[in-house]
Amino acid sequence: MTQSLIDRLGARLGPAGLLTEEADMAPFAIDWRRLFPGRPACVVRPASTAEVADVVRLCAEAGAALVPQGGNTGLAGGAVPDGSATQVVLSLARMNAIRRVDPVGLTLTAEAGCVLKLAQDAAEAAGRLLPVSFAAEGSALVGGVIATNAGGINVVRYGMTRGLVLGLEVVLADGSIVDGLRALRKDNAGYDWKQLFIGTEGTLGIVTAAVLRLVPKPRHTATALLAVPDPAAALRLFTLAQEEIGDSIQAFELISGTSLALVETHAGLRSPVGTAGWTVLIEAASSLSGLREAMEGVLGTALEREDALDGVLAESGRQAADLWALREHVTECEARAGKSVKHDVSVPITAIPAFLDEAGRVLEAGAPGTRVNAFGHMGDGNIHYNVLIGPEHASEAINGLVHGVVDRYGGSISAEHGIGQYRVAELARHRHPDEMALARRIKAALDPQGLMNPGKVLARA
Ligand code: 2HG
Ligand code: ZN
């Protein structure tokens, strides 16, 4: 079965569209963290929506499962195949055109394989901003950003990717194409079906192109790094910043001393405000003047109230980039430090200090010898509560401890990274059975054969 399918895929896509050699398929077979090695039957690289549709139809006819893949930067193993050598990996990378930028209507239309950074650059060249940004933006692809409803550093101001998608083109599990590439701000005509494909990680269909919402590009930016005594002080600082410059805050990040120590050890980058306690990185942006003075005011008041122990305000774009580098290197340096168990959690913002405190105590008691690398997007309630472990620690037990605390604070076990295969069991454990049953009904309706990214988000039926 598999060989005849591969032959048909090759006949449809030509040599540029099909990879079957082990070495060529290797980068598509394993995730960035190298936690989920798989073996694809083949890798297809369609160059158009029509080709994607034909691939899906051929696979459906042959009963072969499909695993859509973007930039393969995900942290939950959602874009890699299992080890059966029967699943077809569908890379969207060749569908990389930016079809249109409309600076007046504030939209950008891109194909799924466009690198996020290139889409951001195209918006910038038109004097506008595509406000989704995260450390992997140089490799992540627009289709994957949408399929995972990516978050990142600007959610505090602009919301998740979901809120930036105006129109979508998708290929359904039977190979039909649905073109909803409307560039409208208001569109209440019937079901908003595109939401089914945003954040569902390719389990219901494949995103092939999208119309994204742009925003005006703020003229001025102010970036500050502050050392704070503890997370409770960081929360007070957040409240102060909300009151003083709330409408211009576009990032409010919390970084633990452990995170900065990792960055210092493994990337040689040193924080100008030290690594002793906790650190907050605030970025504000506005087209109105006076932003810098307003940010100075926030810093001054925070220092006066002793909610900040030290602080720097970037003098230039270069210096701002240096401050951001401290934050953006955490993931890479954590990986270099050894094994870790990641938790991408969110809790109500006001609960962050208590959550951090309680999770720390629970781990100390239940998993002695672990080290917590906590950092994240405090302004939207999302903490990456990653636990560095040794060979004696079991990751499921640590998940149980941390997610137990998340439940007690009414939080979510996946704030922005999705479920992939990494959190399938945890999702089923933490979501109400009624919600899981509803998800299964949606899955059965859209993918009756169960061939769209099986085993991701939901356990195989
Ligand atoms: C970030 O915020 C990313 O830098 C990665 O979401 C988080 O490494 C992580 O756990
Ligand atoms: Zn993050």
From TrEMBL:
<dbReference type="InterPro" id="IPR016166">
    <property type="entry name" value="FAD-bd_PCMH"/>
</dbReference>
<dbReference type="GO" id="GO:0071949">
    <property type="term" value="F:FAD binding"/>
</dbReference>
<dbReference type="InterPro" id="IPR004113">
    <property type="entry name" value="FAD-bd_oxidored_4_C"/>
</dbReference>
<dbReference type="Pfam" id="PF01565">
    <property type="entry name" value="FAD_binding_4"/>
</dbReference>
<protein>
    <submittedName>
        <fullName>2-hydroxyacid dehydrogenase</fullName>
    </submittedName>
</protein>
<keyword id="KW-0285">Flavoprotein</keyword>
<feature type="domain" description="FAD-binding PCMH-type">
    <location>
        <begin position="36"/>
        <end position="217"/>
    </location>
</feature>
<dbReference type="InterPro" id="IPR016167">
    <property type="entry name" value="FAD-bd_PCMH_sub1"/>
</dbReference>
<dbReference type="InterPro" id="IPR006094">
    <property type="entry name" value="Oxid_FAD_bind_N"/>
</dbReference>
<dbReference type="Pfam" id="PF02913">
    <property type="entry name" value="FAD-oxidase_C"/>
</dbReference>
<keyword id="KW-0274">FAD</keyword>
<dbReference type="InterPro" id="IPR016164">
    <property type="entry name" value="FAD-linked_Oxase-like_C"/>
</dbReference>
<dbReference type="InterPro" id="IPR036318">
    <property type="entry name" value="FAD-bd_PCMH-like_sf"/>
</dbReference>
<dbReference type="InterPro" id="IPR016169">
    <property type="entry name" value="FAD-bd_PCMH_sub2"/>
</dbReference>
<dbReference type="GO" id="GO:0003824">
    <property type="term" value="F:catalytic activity"/>
</dbReference>
<dbReference type="GO" id="GO:0022904">
    <property type="term" value="P:respiratory electron transport chain"/>
</dbReference>
<comment type="similarity">
    <text>Belongs to the FAD-binding oxidoreductase/transferase type 4 family.</text>
</comment>
<dbReference type="InterPro" id="IPR016171">
    <property type="entry name" value="Vanillyl_alc_oxidase_C-sub2"/>
</dbReference>
<dbReference type="InterPro" id="IPR051264">
    <property type="entry name" value="FAD-oxidored/transferase_4"/>
</dbReference>
